[in-house]
Amino acid sequence: MALTQAEVLIGIKEIVEEVAGIPADTIEMDKNFTDDLDVDSLSMVEVVVAAEERFGVKIPDDQVSELATVGDAVNFIVKVSA
Amino acid sequence: MIRVKKGTDSRILGVGGYQPSRIVPNSEIVDRIDSTDEWIRQRTGIEERRFAATDETILDMAEAACRQALERANISINEIDTVIVATITYPYQAPSAATALIARLGNPKAAAFDINAACAGFCYGVGMASDFIRSGTSRHVLVVGVEKLSDFTDPQDRATAFIFADGAGAVVIGPSDYPGIGPTVWGSDADSRDAILMEPSWNELREENSLERWPNISQQGQAVFRWAVFSMSKAGLRAIEAAGITPADLAAFIPHQANVRIIESMAREIGIPDSVVIAKDIRTSGNTSAASVPLAMSALLKDRPDLHGGLALLIGYGAGLVFAGQVVELPPKPSSPPTK
Q1: How far apart are CA B267 and CA B278, in angstroms?
Q2: Total-model pTM
Q3: Residue-wise pLDDT tens digits, B212-230
Q4: CB–CB of B222 and A45 under 8 A?
Q5: pLDDT digits (tens, 9 = 90+) for B176-209
Q6: Where are the alpha helices (DSSP H) in B53-201?
Q7: What are the angstrom distances between the C-alpha of B150 and each of A72, B89, B288, B334?
Q8: Which domains does chain B have, with CATH numbers?
Q9: Residues of B with Cβ-Cβ distance to A33 under 8 angstroms
């Protein structure tokens, strides 16, 4: 069943908080992982793997660098879950 | 049917390490790769590493580590019947580093060969040595991990120049009245061979007739990170299960020293309890590929002599991609104190 944008965003907020220690309430769709949230490339890998497990999707390595913002990640996961 | 059975259980009798004297802090590297000390520490945990002198060879480093391991194991070189050298940076393809090493050590009759399993090479060697002893093929085996990665790293490469380093580590593995080395869990993910490469090939060098492109190691950091943390933690758990123990039975976790963040994430994924000491020799030694596990073991036992005789999970992983891990009993306390 396709996931909704809202439920994926909630999950991503929890994952980023857990991996990078960033309070979930400061994480919004337009935040850039690197510039706004200080999530570096290695933490990004941990976020991606956690998201794969949580949402049951595959996010290929070459796709990870395309996910600049929280919204990019949320929309990608919604798309591939459809 | 064969009528003779002569193998015994096996364990590690002694460990030795050797590091070159030249300490290379991050400050010596950052300018040429447009980086900072803080960035390197944050991404890898590395504060400094050792580079061998220009005239200091693989054999010089391996010999020093072996002599220390033999002394600590209280085993004479004449009792060694098999020598396994794990390296990817010995600059001759034949004859092997292992044969040159045993000639130097003074026992040029022992069986000797090199293995290429990159950063997993030492753990591949430990598994083979243990099985040689258990089958009766060998009685005392020297397993050596040695690298001079500074010869095969592009000093301008922003992805690798701050990671790799030089050194050697060795163990003596011998007979035991009880199992001191668990089954080796090993394998490959050979579809990801491109993730870590040493290029160009000798053939390419000859065709180009130029030394502008020297064989250097390159790696896709994020892909390797993902594989190391999430696939290797599963392999580590399998090695623990294969030994018939639980993570709480371990005294130490000594993984390949690739990156502090990989080490910490792996420990978390495996469920290593706080009571287990985690080797983080990478902070002052960098990534020494095949040498990193025995060097880390030697350094850990120097800092924590109480860990002698305890159980440790070893796991190596690297170019191939290949991996190997096993639970071992750390060697007993030698009569003379470790000096690394």
Answers
A1: 8
A2: 0.91
A3: 788 999 998 888 888 998 8
A4: yes
A5: 999 999 999 999 999 989 999 999 998 998 888 8
A6: 58-73, 97-105, 121-135
A7: 40, 9, 10, 32
A8: 9-176 (3.40.47.10), 185-329 (3.40.47.10)
A9: none
